[in-house]
């Protein structure tokens, strides 16, 4: 409209200059001047209307300031064109509309992130997807796809989200389940995401206090691991993280014998009790001779000065149930073997603390229910292994199993007769035979382990419970 007024005035001046000598020309100049005045007055009125609609006193310049929404229109349902018209007083361009919409979306996402439960709790930032459901224990998803319907993960807000300590990792070179000749020896393995093996310290020989820097996820095992640093030497190492261990805690290893009461009968029971009160903490490593009966343990060694071999998976725990004195080559039930009872446990605890009887072995009950003998000089860590809800994880789809390096396994009845003992025939029957593996071995009942010492493993007091050749479960 301003352009119309300026053009009208210019045409009026030109007409006046060309026809200044005639009366008709003077009349036309007056008409053009009145038209220009009316055009300029209407444009000024329209600008006053725009200023009345806007929340600012002046119309902003597009080239100086980016288009922003007024406070009273940030949550309005007006179209972008109407908002831009009310704000700037003109038809906005497509770029201006998109810029305003993008700024509004960013502000909304920031507002939701700041008001989330994770921001209020001060935990690590996560993806704020609208289909993620979290409770106190697991993370599930809104079933917008078939794979998300049954997917269930464990909530781990305390885990480190960054990369591992590079010096404590090595590259993993997968074999795909094949041996040196290229033949498949383990079926169902291959592929998977690239990994680096974390070097776990299963010896824990260095004494002194060590600070827990962080708790990390280990793709090579089901349990979580903890990165610790020695307070004096500054050396870092990875250990299995027990349940309840968090960043900032301290752990200590008493395996070398330093800062421990004498175990040969010279120390009093009071000294041993005070030491146990200070040392029985999750993550500390002690010899079995200094651990009280009934304590929950993990990462136990099979031989003195050896690495931890038992009770290392997620949620596993063992229990120290008795101390016994056993002859060197005695079998269970023979003369040199002492079978403990309920009354013997109390007596053995008193005898061990007083030094009257020096036991040779400790009875440890494993997670499977097996009771096993371990030498008293073996070591174990206090507590239960972390990530106890790992058994409740559901992958949701076969693709996540492939990410973990697990390939699909074909059923025997779906194969040909030349490929599997269950293959061939008509229908889906394996025929009238006992179930067998792909190599022809019976899969139910018979033991496949090679026979060893007569009478079985002498260190096993009670085998794990079985039922029809299968494990009956935890005892």
UniProtKB/TrEMBL annotation:
GO terms for molecular function: RNA binding; structural constituent of ribosome. The keyword rRNA-binding does not apply. Keywords: Mitochondrion, Ribonucleoprotein, Ribosomal protein. One of its GO terms (cellular component) is mitochondrial large ribosomal subunit. Gene3D superfamilies: 2.30.30.30, Nucleic acid-binding proteins (2.40.50.140), Ribosomal protein L2, domain 3 (4.10.950.10). Residues 280-442 form the Large ribosomal subunit protein uL2 C-terminal domain. GO terms for biological process: mitochondrial translation. It is found in: Mitochondrion. The keyword RNA-binding does not apply. It holds the Pfam family Ribosomal_L2_C. Residues 423-452 have a biased composition (Basic residues). Residues 177-253 form the Large ribosomal subunit protein uL2 RNA-binding domain. Its main location: mitochondrion. Residues 85-105, 421-475 are annotated as: Disordered. InterPro entries: NA-bd_OB-fold (IPR012340), Rib_uL2_dom2 (IPR014722), Ribosomal_uL2 (IPR002171), Ribosomal_uL2_C (IPR022669), Ribosomal_uL2_CS (IPR022671), Ribosomal_uL2_dom3 (IPR014726), Ribosomal_uL2_RNA-bd_dom (IPR022666), Translation_prot_SH3-like_sf (IPR008991). PROSITE patterns: RIBOSOMAL_L2. Belongs to the universal ribosomal protein uL2 family. Component of the mitochondrial ribosome (mitoribosome), a dedicated translation machinery responsible for the synthesis of mitochondrial genome-encoded proteins, including at least some of the essential transmembrane subunits of the mitochondrial respiratory chain. The mitoribosomes are attached to the mitochondrial inner membrane and translation products are cotranslationally integrated into the membrane. This is Large ribosomal subunit protein uL2m. It comes from Tilletiopsis washingtonensis.
């Amino acid at each position: 409209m301003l352009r119309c007024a300026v053009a009208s005035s210019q045409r009026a001046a030109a007409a006046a200059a060309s026809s200044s000598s005639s009366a008709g020309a003077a009349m036309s100049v007056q008409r053009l001047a009145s038209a220009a005045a009316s055009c300029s007055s209407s444009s000024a009125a329209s600008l006053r209307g725009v200023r009345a609609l806007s929340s600012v006193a002046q119309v902003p310049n597009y080239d100086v300031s980016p288009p922003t929404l007024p406070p009273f229109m940030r949550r309005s349902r007006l179209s972008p064109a109407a908002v831009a018209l009310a704000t700037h007083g003109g038809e906005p361009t497509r770029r201006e509309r998109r810029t305003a919409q993008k700024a509004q979306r960013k502000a909304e996402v920031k507002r939701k992130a700041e008001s989330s439960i994770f921001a209020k709790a001060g935990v690590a930032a996560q993806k704020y997807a609208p289909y993620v459901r979290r409770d106190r224990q697991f993370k599930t998803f809104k079933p917008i796809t078939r794979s998300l319907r049954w997917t269930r993960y464990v909530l781990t807000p305390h885990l480190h989200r960054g990369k591992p300590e590079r010096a404590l990792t090595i590259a993993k070179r997968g074999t795909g389940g094949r041996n040196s000749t290229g033949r498949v020896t383990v079926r169902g393995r291959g592929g998977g995401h690239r990994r680096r093996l974390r070097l776990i310290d299963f010896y824990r020989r260095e004494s002194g206090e060590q600070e827990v820097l962080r708790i990390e996820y280990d793709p090579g095992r089901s349990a979580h691991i903890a990165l610790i640093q020695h307070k004096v030497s500054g050396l870092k190492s990875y250990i299995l993280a027990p349940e309840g261990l968090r960043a900032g805690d301290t752990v200590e290893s008493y395996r070398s014998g330093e800062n421990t009461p004498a175990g040969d009968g010279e120390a009093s029971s009071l000294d041993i009790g005070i030491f146990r009160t200070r040392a029985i903490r999750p993550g500390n490593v002690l010899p079995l001779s200094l651990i009280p009966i009934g304590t929950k343990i993990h990462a136990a060694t099979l031989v003195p000065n050896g690495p931890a071999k038992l009770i290392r998976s997620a949620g596993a725990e063992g229990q120290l149930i008795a101390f016994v004195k056993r002859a060197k080559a005695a079998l269970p039930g023979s003369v040199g073997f002492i079978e403990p009872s309920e009354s013997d446990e109390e007596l053995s605890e008193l005898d061990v603390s007083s030094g009257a009887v020096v036991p040779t072995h400790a009875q440890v009950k494993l997670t499977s229910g097996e009771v096993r003998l371990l030498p008293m000089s073996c070591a174990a860590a206090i507590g239960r292994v972390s990530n106890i809800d790992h058994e409740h994880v559901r992958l949701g789809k076969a693709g996540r199993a492939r990410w973990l390096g697990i390939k699909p396994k074909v059923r025997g009845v779906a194969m040909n007769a030349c490929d599997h003992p269950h293959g061939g025939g008509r229908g889906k029957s394996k025929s009238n035979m006992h179930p067998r593996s792909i190599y022809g071995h019976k899969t139910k009942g018979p033991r496949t382990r090679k026979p060893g010492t007569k009478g079985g493993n002498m260190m096993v007091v009670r085998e794990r419970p079985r039922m029809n050749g299968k494990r009956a479960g935890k005892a």
